[in-house]
Amino acid sequence: MKTDPLNIGILNLMHDKVDTQKRFSKVLTAGRYEVNVQYLYPQMHYQARPVPELVQKISSPLDLSQIHRFDAFIITGAPIEQLPFNKITYLDEVHRLIDQLVTYEVPQLYVCWGAMAAANYLYGITKTPLPEKIFGVFHNYIQHEDPLLTGLEDGFLAPHARYAELDIKKIARDPRLIINATTKDNRLFSFRTRDKHQYFLFSHLEYGQDALLKEYLRERNTHPGVEYIKPQNYFRDPLHMKDPQFSWQRTQRVFFDNWLQTVANDAKTKQLVKE
Questions:
Q1: Partner of 164 for a Cys bridge, out of 39, 81, 172, 185, CB 3.0 to 4.6 A?
Q2: Which chain positions carry the site (Important for substrate specificity) (predicted)?
Q3: How confident is the model at residue 3, as a pLDDT?
């Protein structure tokens, strides 16, 4: 096991940047590994306007020359899955980041929109809008055993919140990829590459107990005239949207502990090779 702290880089693309950083810091530092987390933002996102003071305060500009220094890297979700990829102003910067991660064989965890963008760029998997948002807490069923799912029972609970999905049939046909788990309705929980350290996670497993409620309220308050779907299987009192349940807490803990173990093993192997 690596004795030095694990250095994890996170490109934070979420709207609620402070909450997102609190969530990832909590799940990554709660286990047995010592972890340093560095939060980054895409510089191209602010090429036509000043970088907000808050963003500068809590994160650093993405520096592609420093990617080789990380033991692992996460690209978060973003509330833009309804937009075509070519409408994303910083997509080229994300692609160049992915190229660096691949070049230096840095273990990669792509979450929700980050997973969609990476899978599209690396493997040509297309993104399509869902008939309605998948939103709430759902059972997930293991299709293939995977180290990151070790310790989870079939039907484990996890939160989903997205308006789009990747072409699951194309993923299943690609010999480079393997689907690990899906919901009962065949919505993706995760898939991975067979021979690289690339993991594509479609559940917001970093979410804490109140995150789904906050997401619903944000959408409703942004567009008060729109009737947004409420998170399913989440409230103890769904009629009044009260008492949200943190039913995926064990899934969260097991998954991130497993991921950090694979990162630590990879870091140890690289260190032995250097020596």
A1: 81
A2: 161
A3: 66
